[in-house]
């Protein structure tokens, strides 16, 4: 055994010989020498290890051709992007783990324009000198929300951090215990508050907070009253919260500003489409909030961003805060966001032009028709062992918006007497591209609300290898 291993090890080519091999020329024309050398080394190391462990290694695996082919497959694997396309049939329209909102076409075009050309990001073309960076986005936000001023940072967590640090560093912020929320992905109000330098002063109880609770807590060190939209859960039953209007009145009496973290802020009233109502930013400003923060990639349907609107005096202080520089958006985000905001201002049909709103408002008969169309093809690919049925179910908005509200939808239920739902889910995940559904009551469901092309639901199992 040991003797055979020694012989095999001696047969392995040197990296140098591989680099000089005629077949390496094509690789070396495309990729740099250091990189290709490293891939040859990895391949040789792997073979050496197998031989030393006494694993069976066939003689043809040791040929230069075979080693070159293996190294090339490593190169190709490296070239595959880490972020790959998946099909979202989970029924959660804004799925944080799947990248939330799909961008409008106009935003995609803006990304491409700004990514491939120099742009007037911070250049005033009329004056021929340095200009303001976020002007276009700020102006649109002011018009859309009725606020005095606006700005934008990387995400809503950053917006909350910047707001708290600017208004309440080393001072107290009063928040209801019922609003000390945690959002998935480690955003917790108390922890963001601690990092901002502000001191949290909790009032009320988990299920009930009254105006007197705020009144009693206000003191010399109070700098801000914070209201947080409890996006991802709802307190039902014996509960009481102090509404924004009332909180604003309390703030006015004590000359303390009120900031609201809306989470998903909407620009349009979703109830006009038969959906439950998500708070509208302009209405919160009208009710007197001094600052409102919300996400760009939730119900709004734009790129990841944290939008801040409110009083000019506060916004100008935020813009001067060094944290703002650290949290500012890049040109790609600004371009995609501006294009999305422009649609809210100008589009004759936003439920067509903004994919998130399109998914929210899609008629059930259209969803069902797509399901019926895809069934025969899906059955053909899956084979006879699987049973398919179009059924009624409910989708969710996701990303914490309207947590208890569900939107009627149609699903394809996939079952197989010889395969559990989790195993079917795994099988669909190995397709190229992976198809993600949901498992409910030990059944695998493909939600059709977010599927627009029937081809997307027909799994391609050939590659990568189906490991079920
Ligand atoms: C989603 C959410 C956040 C975090 O927003 P990101 O844009 O993900 O950073 C903060 N607060 C509330 C209430 C939210 O719903």
Number of folding domains?
Answer: 3
State the shape.
globular
Main pleated sheet? 7 strands, mixed
* Mean pLDDT over the full residue set: 93
Cα gyration radius (Å): 28 Å
Multimeric status of the protein = single chain
Molecular structure report:
The structure is a single chain. The protein has 3 domains: 2-79, no CATH class; 87-95 and 361-457, Aspartate Aminotransferase, domain 1 (Alpha-Beta Complex), CATH 3.90.1150.110; 105-353, Aspartate Aminotransferase, domain 2 (3-Layer(aba) Sandwich), CATH 3.40.640. 42% of the residues lie in helices and 16% in strands. It has 19 helices and 17 strands. Strands 4-12-11-10-9-5-8 form a 7-stranded mixed beta sheet, sandwiched between helices. A 4-stranded antiparallel beta sheet has the order 13-14-17-16. Strands 1-15 form a two-stranded parallel sheet. The longest helix is centred in the N-terminal third of the chain and has 21 residues, at 33-53. The relative contact order is 0.12. Residues 464-468 have low confidence and may be disordered. The chain binds pyridoxal-5'-phosphate. Residues 155-157, 183, 187, 228-229, 231, 261, 263-264, 295, 306, 399-400 line the site of pyridoxal-5'-phosphate.
């Amino acid at each position: 055994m040991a003797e055979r291993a020694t012989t095999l090890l001696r047969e392995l080519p040197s990296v140098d010989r591989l680099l000089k091999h005629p077949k390496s020329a094509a690789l070396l024309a495309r990729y740099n020498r250091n990189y290709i050398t490293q891939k040859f080394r990895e391949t040789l190391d792997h073979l050496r290890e197998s031989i030393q462990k006494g694993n069976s290694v066939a003689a043809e695996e040791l040929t230069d051709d075979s080693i070159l082919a293996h190294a090339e497959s490593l190169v190709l694997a490296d070239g595959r992007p880490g972020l790959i396309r998946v099909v979202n049939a989970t029924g959660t329209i804004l799925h944080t783990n799947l990248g939330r909102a799909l961008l409008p076409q106009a935003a995609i075009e803006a990304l491409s324009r700004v990514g491939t050309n120099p742009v007037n990001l911070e250049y005033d073309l009329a004056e021929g000198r340095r200009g303001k960076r976020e002007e276009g986005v700020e102006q649109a936000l002011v018009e859309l929300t009725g606020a005095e001023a606006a700005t934008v940072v990387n995400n809503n967590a950053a917006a909350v951090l910047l707001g708290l640090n600017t208004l309440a560093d080393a001072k107290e912020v009063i928040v209801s215990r019922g609003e000390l929320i945690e959002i998935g992905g480690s955003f917790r109000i108390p922890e963001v508050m601690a990092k901002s330098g502000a001191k949290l002063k909790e009032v009320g109880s988990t299920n009930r907070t009254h105006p007197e609770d705020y009144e009693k807590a206000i003191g010399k060190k109070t700098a801000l009253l914070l209201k947080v939209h409890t996006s991802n859960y709802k307190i039902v039953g014996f509960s009481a919260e102090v509404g924004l209007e009332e909180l604003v009145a309390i703030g006015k009496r004590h000359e303390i500003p009120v900031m609201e973290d809306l989470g998903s802020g909407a620009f349009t009233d979703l109830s006009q489409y038969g959906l439950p109502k998500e708070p509208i930013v302009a209405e919160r400003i009208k009710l007197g909030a001094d600052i409102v923060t919300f996400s760009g990639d939730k119900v709004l349907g734009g790129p990841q961003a944290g939008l801040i609107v409110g009083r000019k005096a506060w916004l100008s202080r935020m813009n001067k805060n060094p944290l703002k520089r650290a949290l500012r958006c890049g040109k790609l985000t600004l371009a995609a966001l501006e294009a999305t905001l422009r649609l809210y201002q100008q589009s004759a049909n936003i439920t067509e032009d903004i994919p998130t709103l399109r998914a929210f408002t899609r008629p059930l008969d259209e969803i069902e028709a797509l399901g019926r169309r895809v069934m025969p093809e899906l059955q053909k690919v899956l084979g006879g062992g699987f049973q398919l049925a179009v059924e009624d179910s409910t989708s969710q908005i996701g990303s914490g918006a309207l947590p208890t509200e569900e939107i009627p939808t149609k699903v394809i239920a996939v079952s197989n007497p010889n395969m559990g739902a989790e195993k079917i889910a795994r099988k669909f995940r190995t397709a190229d591209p992976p198809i993600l559904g949901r498992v409910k009551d030990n059944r695998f469901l493909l939600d059709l609300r977010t599927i627009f092309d029937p081809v997307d639901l027909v799994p391609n199992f050939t590659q990568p290898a189906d490991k079920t």
